[in-house]
Amino acid sequence: MHWKALPACAVIFGSVLTAAAAIPMTYKEIAMLLRNGEQPQFILDDTAKRRLLQPLSPQEEKDLAALGATPSLLNALRSPAMLASPQAAEAYQASLQQQKLAAAQQQEQEKQQEQSRIAQQANAKAPLQRQAQPRGNTPGGELLGKPLDLSFTAVDGAAVDLSKLRGKVVLVDFWATWCGPCMHEVPNVVSAYKKYHAKGFEVVGISLDKSKDTMIKVTHEKEMTWPQYFDGNGWGNKISTSFGIHSIPSMWLVNKRGILVSTDARSNLDASIAKLLAE
Predict the structure, then answer these.
(1) What residue spans define the domains of the chain?
(2) C-alpha 154: how far from chain center
(3) Contacts of 87 (CB under 8 A, 6+ apart)
(4) If you write DSSP's letter for every residue of 114-175 in order, what string do you get?
(5) CA separation (Å) from 237 to 62, 109, 115?
(6) What count of other Cβ atoms lies within 10 Å of the Cβ of residue 165?
(7) Rounded to an integer, what distance in angstroms lies between the CA atom of residue 61 and that of residue 69?
(8) The predicted structure's pLDDT at residue 8
(9) Rounded CA separation 70/276 (Å)
(10) Is 91 exposed, middle or buried (0-12, 13-18, 19+ CB in 10 A)?
(11) DSSP 51
(12) How many CB atoms lie within 10 A of CB 83?
């Protein structure tokens, strides 16, 4: 708290409380106003005044004493919540909760942005990694040319089982709303789905999101009408982990016989789908 700003604060108080019998000149007098049920707007809006509802720290006591604060004022401010009205205390607690929620949301957003940044860096290196690594070391590489075993209950309650989608070409899309490259690919996937769905093309989404509400909101807004798997574990997603997915977006294509034929469908999605449908 900036205790040296006390005289300036007193001037503000005077302009706001013109109807009061006396202008409050000390924090004790302001606390008394709260106790008596008066709630001038400045008390709820000014962060420094909300500190009335918090006990003084040892350093704050030293600062006030150095400014000539009386012992009675210090005693009053050591437990100011006893002086505040229930309404003021309630308003302050609500403000604290809002601040904590905002801080938590900011922290989660920063975490997701960092994960997205790491994923983008991994994607940028992916072509070189695919050239340098044996096929079996790439995510899904050991599964290429084999039937892909995948079944789950989608967010909308639909049962998804690739073994029951034989005769159709299926795109398995590992993605997340917080992933910039993933969201960049969404229009391409939506376009392909609308173009080829009636001809036997299906999409299955594996979401690495942690917020179910956010994922559902985005899929509705972007017209991603296909089934989505969600377990809220982010990078710890059960299905993506089981397939060794370490970067997204990752798009796998399964042919009409249920065989995994590509683990890199992003590069030529439309042509790849058309070719598989023609088989």
Answers:
(1) 3-84, 135-278
(2) 22
(3) 37, 39
(4) HHHHHHHHHHHHHHHHHHHS-GGGSTTGGGTTSB---EEE-TTS-EEEGGG-TTSEEEEEEE
(5) 53, 19, 14
(6) 17
(7) 9
(8) 34
(9) 85
(10) middle
(11) G
(12) 21
38 C-beta neighbours (distance < 10 Å), count = 15
Q: Which CATH fold would you assign to the domain 135-278?
A: Glutaredoxin (3.40.30)
Could you tell me the pTM of the whole model? 0.52
Question: How much is the pLDDT for 20?
Answer: 38
**pLDDT, position 58:** 78
User: What's the rounded Cα separation, in Å, for the pair 26 and 45?
Assistant: 18
Question: Residue 167 and residue 153: Cα distance in Å, rounded?
Answer: 21
Residue 244, Cβ neighbours under 10 Å: how many? 14
As a whole number of angstroms, the distance between CA 193 and CA 261 comes to 18
**Cβ contact 164:268 at 8 Å:** no
- Interaxial angle between packed helices 86-132 and 180-196, expressed in degrees from 0 to 180 and rounded to the nearest 10: 70
| CB contact at 8 A, 254 and 272 | no
Q: List the structure tokens of 157.
A: 């309650």
Contact status, residue 83 vs residue 34, Cβ threshold 8 Å = yes
- Strand partners of residue 170: 202, 254
Q: Angle at CA 142, nearest 5°, toward 140 and 146?
A: 90
The pLDDT averaged over each successive group of 10 residues in the chain (279 residues) is: 36 35 47 50 41 63 68 64 54 65 79 76 50 44 88 94 95 95 94 95 96 95 96 93 91 95 90 93
- The pair of three-digit structure tokens given for residue 244, joined into one six-digit string: 């060794």
Q: Percent helix, strand, coil in the chain (nearest 5)?
A: 55, 10, 30
